[in-house]
Design a protein that fits this description.
Strand order of the largest sheet: 6-5-4-7-8
Strand content: 35-45%
Distance between the termini: 37 Å
CATH architecture of the largest domain: Beta Barrel
Number of domains: 2
Length: 133
C-alpha cells in the first residue's frame, strides 16, 4: 500500500468492508470487480459484508516484507464470512499457538501501518478470534 491513487480507490472496501453484489445472479465479489465472475454481468449494487466468519486456513509469516518486519512473526488467514464471501486477513489479538482452523473470527478496523515518520497512516481490516462465552 502507498499514498498512490490505488490506495485511495481501495478505501471503501478496506474501511467499510464494501463489496459488489451482482444484480443478475447475486454473486458477491470482494474486492469489487467490474465483471461478475459467475455470469459476466456488469451490473452491481454495493453491499456491506458481515463482520463475522470462520477461519478456513492460515499461515505464519516469519520472514516479512520490509514494511512489516517489526511485526514478524504474524499470522495471515483466509476467513469465510457469514454469507460465503472469503477474505484474506492478518490474524490478531491471540498468540500464534492459539489459532485453530474452524475458529470463529470477527473483522475489525485497525491501523495497518504508517508511511514514514510523518506520513499517512494506513488503516484496513484484520481478523480476531471471537471470545468463547
Amino acid at each position: 500500500m502507498s499514498t498512490s491513487a490505488r490506495y485511495w480507490r481501495g478505501i471503501p472496501q478496506r474501511y467499510r468492508l464494501e463489496a459488489n453484489k451482482c444484480k443478475k445472479c447475486g454473486q458477491t465479489s470482494f474486492p469489487p470487480r467490474l465483471v461478475c465472475p459467475a455470469c459476466g454481468s456488469r451490473e452491481f449494487e454495493a453491499t456491506k459484508l458481515p463482520q463475522t466468519g470462520t477461519l478456513l486456513t492460515y499461515t505464519v509469516i516469519r520472514v516479512a516484507p520490509s514494511q512489516f518486519v517489526d511485526e514478524a512473526p504474524y499470522a495471515v488467514g483466509v476467513v469465510e464470512l457469514d454469507g460465503g464471501t472469503r477474505i484474506t486477513s492478518q490474524i490478531t489479538d491471540c498468540s500464534l499457538d492459539a489459532i485453530r482452523i474452524g475458529q470463529k473470527m470477527k473483522v475489525e478496523f485497525r491501523r495497518i501501518r504508517a508511511e514514514g515518520l510523518s506520513g499517512i497512516i494506513c488503516y484496513g481490516y484484520k481478523c480476531a478470534p471471537v471470545a468463547v462465552q
